[in-house]
Amino acid sequence: MIYENTSVEGFTLLGYFEYPNFKFLLFFGFLSAYSLCILGNIVLIALVYLNSQLHSPMYFFLCNLSSLDICLTTLIHPKFLLTFLNMRSISFHECMGQLYLYIAFQSLEYLLLTVMSYDRYVAICNPLHYNIILNRKFCVILSAVTWLISLIDPAPIMRLVTKLPFCKSHQINHHFCDSVELLKLSCGSITRLGIVILIESVILALPAFLFTLYTYVSIISIILKIQTARGRLKAFSTCASHLTVVSMLYVTLTCVYFVPSFSQSVNDSKTVSLLNIVLIPMLNPVLYSLQNKDVKNAFLKLIKQKQISAK
Fold first, then answer.
1. G-protein coupled receptors family 1 profile domain location, by residue (predicted)?
2. 48 and 290 in contact (C-beta within 8 Å)?
């Protein structure tokens, strides 16, 4: 990508500059969260890879989600952690690259979660044809399409952002190059950019949300028809983790980017956005493991194999 706004040398990421007395505590706290996120997602991917019983569409998409979580946290955390060590500068090209990948990864996250909701829909509403509908070839195509769309999605937005003049300030009051904070620094018109963002939301985000909503309305209606309470609980447990993650994602995105009064509060926006880049990626492997007997059994089996080999 060619950046046309060469008049801007770079920006300063302020991070949590307002808490100087706690910067080392915050540094080690976020470093621990980042490490747990990477470790948890790598372990989950390894479990799926090593255990043939987990070679199913649901776990294939879960591995895609774990790979995304690793990429998203690695995109933000290293630079964010440096702000606690008073190393806050970020070049214009690096900032634009970070923003591009952040938009792409966020798009990929809700697209993957939409695909995973379809997986749960087929599993519960049409279980007899599950392996036929979600065959290996179809799953690979779905995965490839979501990654491709996500990488293309930020291009129109980035083309307009890179043309903006940033003359108000070069200090970004955030822990990464967030689009909302960047637009506050521009002294140019952002009307056209706002229209492009709205169009992309209507074309991509809204259908994904409505489709996810439709799948869960269908799933819940099927679950309610199950006669036994144990059967209903078992059916719901298969999609409880996914529903939790979906709810957290859409609530945080709505608060940060679509609720004006909330977005104007910088500290609130910074804190809630951490849910997307810290809490959700860290909780994903935990939620899907605790709610899933297959994953827990695979983990215990792996530990037993390691103990036997050690002897």
1. 40-288
2. no
CA nearest neighbour of 161 among 183, 130, 177, 135: 183
What are the CA-CA distances from residue 285 to residues 35, 47, 60, 101, 289 (Å)? 13, 11, 13, 22, 6
pLDDT in tens, 63-122: 999 999 999 999 999 999 999 988 889 998 999 999 999 999 989 998 999 999 999 999
Cα 31 to chain centroid distance, Å, stands at 18
Residue 15: which of 87, 96, 101 has the closest Cα? 87
Mean pLDDT across the stretch 233-247? 79
What is the Rg, in whole angstroms, of the alpha carbon atoms belonging to the chain? 21
CB atoms within 10 A of CB 154: 22
What mean pLDDT value characterizes the chain? 83
> What span, in angstroms and rounded, lies between the C-alpha atoms of 113 and 10?
34
